[in-house]
Hints:
- The chain has 2 domains: about 1-30; about 35-110, no CATH class.
- Helix content is about 60%, strand content about 0%.
- It has 6 helices and no strands.
Amino acid sequence: MKIWLKRIVIGSCLVGLGVLFSWVWFIEMVKRYPMDYDPIDIEYVLWKHGLNQNMNLDHALVAMTHDTWVVKLVEGKTKKQLTERFGAIRTYNQARPYDQYCANLPETVGD
């Protein structure tokens, strides 16, 4: 067998294995995290990267409370951008007392 043909066969096998393992990982993630309010759920991950426009915003906000990189979604955004992304936005005075309490805890910023 010629060396170039051997390299093509080996390369094709490695690419095929990569595609197969990626597909298995994707299916496992979908089955393991079926709730769309889980920060590892595929719907939330796609929404977070701007690829899922049909995400339930209430569930997205719940998932954001458990997401470790949530600050990147809101930091540096204008009020208009936040409204487009999340829908209605409450002011500090409109928020629930618990949310106001959490907003005043310095150790919760970025968590």
